[in-house]
Known about the structure:
5 strands, binds zinc ion, mainly beta
Amino acid sequence: MALKERETVQDCPNCESRIIGKIGVERYYCHDCCVEFDGGESGGIYSIDDEGNLMSLEGDEQS
Length: 63
Ligand SMILES: [Zn+2]
């Protein structure tokens, strides 16, 4: 039942780097592979294109 601190910065889910910065509520940016990711249970990973648009890197579940 040991709960970890929610503020603890986690590893990048994409490249497992720890060189990440917090940019919002449960939102982090990896300086290694240049992606944003959610720190919550959703665990979404987003790349940022040259125009600053977020693109999901996983779960292209559009059918
Ligand atoms: Zn990364």
